[in-house]
Amino acid sequence: MHSVTPQSLTLGPTQTTVPALGIGTWAWGDSLYWGYGKDYDADTLRAAFRAAVQAGVPFFDTAEVYGLGESERLLGQFMKEQEGAIAIATKYFPLPWRFGKSAVSDALTASLKRLQVPSVALYQVHSPFDFFMGQDTLMEALADEVKQGRIQTVGVSNYSAEQMLRAHELLAKRGVPLAVNQVQYSLLERKIEQNGVLQTAQNLGVTILAYSPLAQGLLTGKYTPDDYQKPQGARQLNPRFSKDGLTKLMPQVQLLTDVGHAHSKTPAQVALNWLIAQGNVIPIPGAKSSSQAEQNAGALGWSLTEDEVTRISQAFAG
Ligand SMILES: NC(=O)c1ccc[n+]([C@@H]2O[C@H](COP(=O)([O-])OP(=O)(O)OC[C@H]3O[C@@H](n4cnc5c(N)ncnc54)[C@H](OP(=O)(O)O)[C@@H]3O)[C@@H](O)[C@H]2O)c1
User: Fold this and answer.
1) Is residue 79 part of a domain?
2) Torsion angle defined by CA atoms of residues 113, 116, 119 and 121, in that order, rounded to the nearest 10 degrees
3) Containing structural domain, residue 27
4) Does residue 2 belong to any structural domain of this protein?
5) Does the predicted model carry a pTM greater than 0.90?
């Protein structure tokens, strides 16, 4: 017997519980990388938002920089139209000219205004490059915001194991736990298993928010060399999306398809369930439509067997 993946998880050693899968919203309002406004628009995204809530994943990851604030703005509008609790994770970007504690509170004020909410479940530092601010000032400012109740929990993103330990230590001085490290993690991007990030997070009880968990669409089975379809936007520059790249990937995608058949699940749902099976990992797949949101939410409520997890791990190793 194997256990079914959890429907919800607490963010690190905190009291804040969120669905065990979130919806990424980088593409929401972003025309530069993802092509917002061409194939999909605000109405398509409203439908994606509603589908995610309906499917039991009212948890969205955004950032002040996504679409230069448009992602937060869209989420703010959609939340106003929706009943029920929604958990939001957003991010502070450490820009070079931000160096005092007030820069953090000003950025958060602007995010909350765009989101039209008094507080968020999770506030993450988008990148470890802190320029003139220094991690001690930054963590002080974040701890202040927890005490004031404008953020429930603190996270970091793209931090190494060492940087995560330091953030954890600085926050602990203020009695605030480090809840999350948001990093790139998918079957095709497994660096965190080797560089100490996953192990350190597990030791500290810090939750990993796995970004680009579908390798930006490669693991969905939608892109194949036979029926060659160029991806939207900047992904065209990624050699993995070329005809050759896709040809190499096909045996692995076929395994996800085969394993999925046994559970009546899609390759994307298998790839996301594999991440959840690693323990204390929350994938945040992007969704640009209601069908993608619904499908990605379907990664919850069932489990791969231990043998399937091992087989998939091995097939994607190296
Ligand atoms: N902290 C950071 O530095 C950082 C960096 C990157 C991302 N993130 C976060 O992580 C989230 C997810 O990462 P990501 O958007 O880079 O990559 P991803 O989740 O791996 O891939 C998302 C893309 O895959 C396609 N897709 C998604 N679900 C699908 C499905 N069920 N079937 C077929 N295609 C599907 C969609 O694009 P198409 O339909 O166009 O193929 C979608 O835009 C972001 O939205 C953002 O919130 C954070």
Assistant:
1) yes
2) -120
3) 15-217+268-302
4) no
5) yes
How many CB atoms neighbour CB 26 within 10 A? Answer: 20
The reply to whether ligand 1 has any atom less than 6 angstroms from the CB of 123 is no
- Tell me which residue has its CA closest to atom 41 in ligand 1: 217
Tens-digit pLDDT profile for residues 197-237: 999 999 999 999 999 999 999 999 999 998 877 888 889 89
> Does the beta carbon of 158 lie inside 6 Å of ligand 1?
yes
Number of domains in the chain: 1
Distance 238 CA to ligand 1 centre (A): 14
Q: What span, in angstroms and rounded, lies between the C-alpha atoms of 282 and 181?
A: 11
232 lines ligand 1 (CB under 6 A): yes
Write the CATH number for 110: 3.20.20.100
pLDDT single digits (tens) 240-256: 999 999 999 999 999 99
CA 112, 116, 117, 118: dihedral to nearest 10 degrees?
A: 60
Look up 66 and say whether it is catalytic. Answer: yes
Q: Whose CA is nearest to atom 37 of ligand 1?
A: 217
